[in-house]
Amino acid sequence: MSKGVLTIVSGFSGAGKGTVMKGLLANYDNYALSISATTRRPREGEQDGREYFFKTREEFEQMIAEGAFIEYAQYVENYYGTPKAYVEEQLANGKDVLLEIEIQGALQVKKLRPDALLIFITPPSAEILEQRLTGRGTETPEVIAMRMNRAVEEAAYMDAYDYIIINDQLEDCIEKTHRLIQSQHAASSLQSEFICRIQRELKERKESKA
Ligand code: 5GP
To answer: What fold characterizes domain 4-30+99-210?
Structure first.
C-alpha cells in the first residue's frame, strides 16, 4: 500500500491557511486534516473536536508527559500540539495528511520526518496581511499587534520551507498546493518499497540469465 504524504502548511496568522485547508478537503477526497490540541480559548463559533481539541494547561502538559504529540509549541502565550495517533493512522491508510501548524512545530516535524513537505502560505504584502487580520474582527488590537510582531520573526524562517505559495487568488492557491502535494507522491523517499522491489527484480533477472 502506498503511504500518504505528510504536508505541513504554515503561514502568518491571517494568511488564509485555514481557508486553503478547507478548500483542499472540499475539492479532493484524499486528504485528512489533523486536529490540534490547544490551550487557547475557543473563538466564537469554534467547536471542541472540530477546529481544535480545547485543553487546560494541566491537561496539555499531561499529554506532553505521555508523549502524545508529534510536535508541540508555544504561540502567543498558548500551547498548540499535533496528536500523534491520528496522523500515523491516516498516513498508514494512504491518506495525505495536512498539518496546519506554526513554524517551530513545522521544523520539529521536518527533523523527525525529512520526507514531510513544508509549504508556507503568505499574503502578497505586509499591508494586506494587516488588513486581513483587522478585517477578521475576532481579535483585539493588542493581539493583532502581537501577531504582526510574530510574523516578523516567522518571516526569518521562510527559506526553511520547501515551497512558498502566495495567497492572492484563493482557488489558484488551493490548486497549486494540491499539485505540490500530489507531486510529492513521486519523491524517492516515499518510494522505498518500490525501489527495493525493482532492484530485487533486476538482480534476479540478471542472475537468471547468467
Ligand atoms: P490560531 O490561534 O490562530 O488558531 O493559531 C495560531 C497558530 O498556531 C497558527 O499559526 C496555527 O497554524 C498554529 N497551530 C495550530 N495548531 C498547531 C499545532 O498543533 N502545533 C503547532 N506547532 N502550531 C499549531
So the answer is: Rossmann fold (3.40.50)
